[in-house]
Design goal:
Order of helices and strands: HHHHHHHHHHHHHHHHHHHHH
Number of helices: 21
Radius of gyration: 21 Å
Strand content: under 5%
Number of strands: 0
Distance between the termini: 40 Å
């Protein structure tokens, strides 16, 4: 077993350092490891079968639809309306533009289902605007990337769907409802830190917006925000399944974007092509990660890790802290989708042994791994933020550290306060 782990991790990290795409690295590392116990042809055949089997899920059909709706919302003038609405709500508070940035990224990330899209769409406008108003560019970029990842907890969320598939026994509707409070908690924590830093640095507040103008801006953004409630509300009410809800989201996003006049009919082929490219990358990651997860299970590695953790301590606090620490390190090197598929079967049984429900563990897992998206050396959201702002990761470290602290505090609260994940699903009858 030790040889299997050494070969698997060794080949994977060598390929990553050579710049090989993550999906290809996972596939090659898995096939190479399988060849320790079988010849080349059976190893490739087995990996191909597991890849195809991992994608044979009706639930996963929701992902391409949510990707399309996200692209439509991203091109449909949604970002600027969300920014204006956020200004009306929090713009006059200390560090107003930083708070607007965080809130806008959260909203856009949840609506689009993509932290990268939120960083690109909101950051392109907000980072130059904040810099023009006297904010440090690196601080503005740090606020953008950390705020964007919280949208992954607020439905509709593709990664929560991926977790539901990996866990196998969790309601997507319950996960969607369970993500609200942790996502909002993380946003509040970021805003408190950002406001304190802005006040310390003497950054200006935004001018007060007249009440009627503020209400008009919120009204204009209302249809965009409504998609969240239409999707989740329809699922909870039993009107449609999560997969059907994703198709409803596409129709709604298309109608809204056409109504705003931001998307022309001739632009749809380009949007669909980009959606296909993104969907292909996500589903390839899911397929090869399922193959690697099967390989780990075949070698009894999850059971060995579970037994090892339980021999360290029988204290739930110690075990859950260790799991979080391991996942934080994993998230810094591995994209969130394969990390969910690979580590759910490893750590979920341990968490359940400690009294944690699959729903609670899923929210903790997604929040934890989301932090990795803005953590070097592999954080995709961090790289996009740097590209948008024209800065470097080294310059972001100082402002990022205090925002990381806010996210870690939120993670600990989510880990040890089950109500944050289970309160809303229980209140609407999705769990007992």
């Amino acid at each position: 077993m030790l040889l299997t782990v050494a070969v698997l991790l060794g080949i994977f990290f060598i390929l990553i350092m050579l710049g090989v795409p993550i999906a290809v690295s996972i596939a090659l590392a898995s096939v190479s490891t399988l060849m320790l116990s079988m010849s080349f042809d059976p190893a490739v055949t087995t990996m191909a079968q597991r890849l195809a089997g991992g994608l044979d899920s009706f639930t996963l059909l929701a992902i391409p639809f949510f990707v399309i709706s996200g692209y439509l919302m991203g091109r449909g003038g949604i970002a600027k309306r969300l920014i204006e609405a956020a200004k009306a709500v929090v713009g006059t508070l200390p560090g107003g533009l930083a708070l607007v940035n965080t809130l806008s990224c959260m909203l856009f990330g949840s609506i689009s289902g993509s932290a990268v899209a939120a960083t690109s769409a909101i950051g392109t406008f907000m980072i130059p605007t904040m810099e023009k108003e006297g904010y440090d560019k690196n601080f503005s970029t740090a606020v953008t990337v950390t705020g964007s990842i919280l949208g992954l907890l607020i439905p509709p969320s593709n990664v929560l769907i991926v977790y539901a598939v990996a866990a196998g026994s969790v309601s997507i509707a319950a996960l969607f409802m369970g993500g609200y409070l942790p996502g909002i908690l993380g946003g509040i924590a970021l805003m408190i830190v950002a406001a304190g830093y802005a006040k310390k640095e003497g950054y200006p507040r935004s001018a007060r917006i007249p009440f009627k103008a503020a209400m008009r801006k919120m009204f204009e953004a209302g249809p965009s925000i409504a998609m969240i409630f239409i999707v989740v509300g329809g699922i909870i009410a039993g009107i449609f399944t999560a997969t059907e809800a994703s198709a409803i989201a596409v129709i709604y996003a298309l109608i809204l974007s056409m109504f705003y006049g931001e998307i022309k009919f001739g632009e749809l082929p380009e949007i669909l092509l980009k959606s296909i490219e993104t969907t292909a990358m996500v589903l390839l990651l899911i397929g090869v990660s399922t193959g690697m997860a099967w390989l780990l299970a075949y070698e009894n590695i999850p059971q060995a890790i579970s037994d090892g953790l339980l021999t360290i301590s029988d204290n739930p606090i110690v075990i859950l802290l260790l799991i979080n620490l391991i996942l934080l390190v994993v998230g810094a090197f591995l994209d969130i989708t394969p990390a969910i598929l690979i580590f759910t079967p490893i750590f979920l049984p341990v968490a359940m042994e400690m009294g944690m429900t699959p729903l609670h563990f899923g929210i903790m897992l997604v929040l934890n791994l989301s932090i990795g998206l803005c953590t070097p050396p592999v954080g995709s959201v961090l790289f996009v933020g740097c590209a948008v702002a024209g800065t470097s990761i080294q310059k972001l470290i100082r402002p990022l550290l205090m925002l990381y602290a806010a996210l870690i505090v939120s993670l600990l609260l989510v880990t040890f306060v089950p109500f944050l994940s289970e309160g809303l699903p229980r209140a609407v009858g999705l769990i007992q």
